[in-house]
Write a structure and sequence with these properties.
Elements: H1 4-47, H2 53-77, H3 84-110, H4 130-173
Helix pairs in contact: 2-3, 2-4
Length: 182
C-alpha cells in the first residue's frame, strides 16, 4: 500500500489545482463582463453625442460589424499554405476581425440598461439614444450583409453560367465530357 499513497496525494493536488483554475477562470470572466458593462455605460454618452447623434454612431457601428464579420468569414474561408508563422498570422487576422465586430455589437448592447436594473441605481439610468443606435446598427449591418451576399451569389451564378457555356461549346466540338462513361 506504500506505492499508492503518493498517487492519491498527487490526484488530490490535481483536483485542487483544477478547482482553483476553474474558480479563477470563472472569476475572470465575470470580472471582464462587468468591467465591459461599466466601460460601455460610462463611455456611451460621449459616443452617442457624435455629430449626427446616435443615428450616426449606429451607422458607424453597423458598418464596422458588417465589415468585421465579412473579413473574418473571408479569412476563415481561405486555404493557408506556407510557414507556420503565416498560418498563425492568418488565424490572428480572423480573430481580430471577428472579435472587433463582436466587441462593437456588444458595446452597443451593453449601453442599454439591464433588465433587472432599477433606474434609481448608479449605472442603471437610461442613456438617451441607445435604442436608436442599436436599431440603426442592426439595420446597417443587416443591409450591408445582404448586399454582400447578393453580390457573391450573382458572381457565383455568372461563373457557373460561363462554365456551362464552355462545356457546351466543347461538347459541340466533340472534345468535352460526355454523359456516357467511355
Amino acid at each position: 500500500m506504500m506505492a499508492s499513497e503518493p498517487d492519491r496525494g498527487f490526484r488530490t493536488w490535481e483536483g485542487f489545482a483544477l478547482a482553483g483554475m476553474v474558480i479563477t477562470l470563472g472569476g475572470s470572466v465575470v470580472m471582464a463582463l462587468s468591467l465591459w458593462k461599466w466601460f460601455a455605460r460610462t463611455t456611451a454618452p460621449v459616443a452617442l453625442n457624435w455629430p449626427g447623434g446616435s443615428w450616426a454612431f449606429g451607422v458607424a457601428a453597423g458598418v464596422v460589424v458588417a465589415l468585421g464579420f465579412l473579413g473574418a468569414s473571408w479569412l476563415s474561408g481561405l486555404a493557408v499554405r506556407g510557414s507556420r508563422l503565416r498560418q498563425v498570422g492568418h488565424g490572428v487576422g480572423t480573430a481580430v476581425c471577428g472579435g472587433t465586430a463582436f466587441a462593437i455589437l456588444m458595446y452597443v448592447l451593453a449601453s442599454l440598461p439591464g433588465k433587472n436594473c432599477p433606474s434609481y441605481r448608479d449605472g442603471c439610468q437610461y442613456i438617451p439614444g441607445t435604442g436608436s443606435a442599436l436599431i440603426t446598427c442592426l439595420a446597417t449591418s443587416a443591409l450591408l450583409g445582404w448586399g454582400v451576399y447578393r453580390i457573391q451569389k450573382a458572381r457565383a451564378e455568372k461563373r457557373q453560367t460561363r462554365e456551362r457555356e464552355r462545356i457546351r461549346k466543347l461538347r459541340k466540338k466533340g472534345k468535352g465530357k460526355t454523359r456516357k462513361a467511355r
